[in-house]
From TrEMBL, chains A, B:
The lineage of its organism: Bacteria, Pseudomonadati, Pseudomonadota, Alphaproteobacteria, Hyphomicrobiales. This is TetR family transcriptional regulator. Keywords: DNA-binding, Repressor, Transcription, Transcription regulation. It comes from Ancylobacter aquaticus. It comes from the Bacteria. Residues 12-72 form the HTH tetR-type domain.
Length: 223, 223
DNA sequence: CTCACAGTTATTCAAGCGTATAACAAAATC
DNA sequence: GATTTTGTTATACGCTTGAATAACTGTGAG
């Protein structure tokens, strides 16, 4: 019985690997499948190591949730271009890979179902949610301002809620039943819906790689 | 040590009580909190009885999921009135109690997070989802037909996806952060959004109790 | 009133859980 | 190259889990 070989990793590496392993476990087998032993196996270490990096299993789950939220929102930050282009990219980014896929939904839903149970997760959730919606609210205000519209704060807030709702709902549909939709059907629907909501057409963004993909998408369905 | 008293219930009663207890456990403590012992305690029986009515824990969870889906969709069925009134009620019903509250979301999310893991749940989910969207698709077709519009099937399908997305997304926001919204803000937003999507105003439904409540809602926010 | 059935309880079991801790060894330090 | 440090393994513990089974008892049939 010889002891198994092991590699000493840096703290950053190890924590990253362990959190990735946690997310893999959750997406493959649900929260119930994310046991310390499963996580350790997936990360190629032994179970005890998890508690060397995380004070408890709850803590690693909290850290994992932060990563999930970051992945769902980071692509929609730091967009550039005109307000209209940024809105356009925002829509596209939120409804295509890697934000919209079934793994994202599995992870998101697993944590959401515990948000109302676990106060620590609730805090993490609320911060992420508010920051996302405020970002969208600012973006919409910029778009309307660029159109020369004076925007009443209450109307802008309602608009943000509506647009957020459309994006959330379409994201949900895409994740849940992606195979029922053609590639970019949802993006196309989102564009027409949001154009209807804000009362203005939305121009295509500047021609980056991403946006070329996006325009291809539109060409197919948006006619 | 005397044996505890017990009451012999009919099969229907017992199954109903056990499923309700299961839902209570899930909404209060997540899927992880729904152990056979917790469910039994909540239902006022002992753990062994669960396996007398359900072949395994998985089976009671599947039955519970069916109930959750039914609760989320049943209120939106068998609406009456003109197509426009039915659409109006449909929107209202889906964004107010008892469909939209944090308990509904807890239950929904808990099961959704297992849909991609458990094939039995996936089947139950898919059936519920398709039936809901087909209902909405028919409803929208009726509304547009009543407006004298000839409806291309593809356009109607896209419209149904969009409206479904708006409703899902707003439902989600209302459940997640209900306290951030005033009573009927979401209903009001849904009306303007969906009016924009279908290109027609939506009349208020016939004056039932429900609809009076609904109009009060609109009066506050929609003007 | 008796009896047999079946709904229910009580108890047990093996497996898996999160956690604690001691032994070990890879790498950094001197 | 010896020594220290600490990342990592290995093992054990108490507890909970889903499940199986035996014992009990409420209840309807006769």
């Amino acid at each position: 019985m010889s002891r198994r070989d092991f590699h000493r990793a840096t703290e950053a590496e190890r924590r990253h690997d362990l959190i990735e392993a946690t997310l893999d476990c959750i997406s493959e087998a649900g929260l119930q499948g994310a046991t310390v032993r499963q996580i350790a196996t997936k990360a190629g270490v032994t179970a005890g190591l998890i508690r060397h990096y995380f004070a408890s299993k709850d803590v690693i789950l909290q850290e994992a949730y932060k990563v999930v939220i970051a992945r769902l929102t980071e692509k929609a930050k730091n967009l550039d271009g005109t307000p209209e282009e940024r809105l356009s990219s925002f829509i596209f980014v939120n409804l295509t890979e890697p934000v919209a896929n079934s793994r994202s939904l599995s992870l998101w839903a697993a944590f959401i179902s515990r948000v109302s149970v676990d106060p620590a997760l609730a805090t993490i959730h609320r911060e992420g949610y508010l920051s996302f919606r405020q970002e969208l609210e600012q973006l919409l205000a910029d778009v309307l301002a660029a159109k020369g519209e004076s925007v009443h704060p209450a109307r802008n807030r309602a608009l943000a809620i509506a647009v957020n709702g459309v994006l959330d709902g379409l994201w949900l549909e895409g994740c849940l039943a992606g195979e029922l939709f053609e590639e970019s059907e949802l993006v196309s629907i989102a564009f027409s819906s949001i154009e209807a909501l804000i009362g203005h057409p939305i121009k295509a963004p500047a021609p980056t790689d991403m946006d070329r993909e996006y325009r291809d998408a539109l060409r197919i369905h948006h006619r």
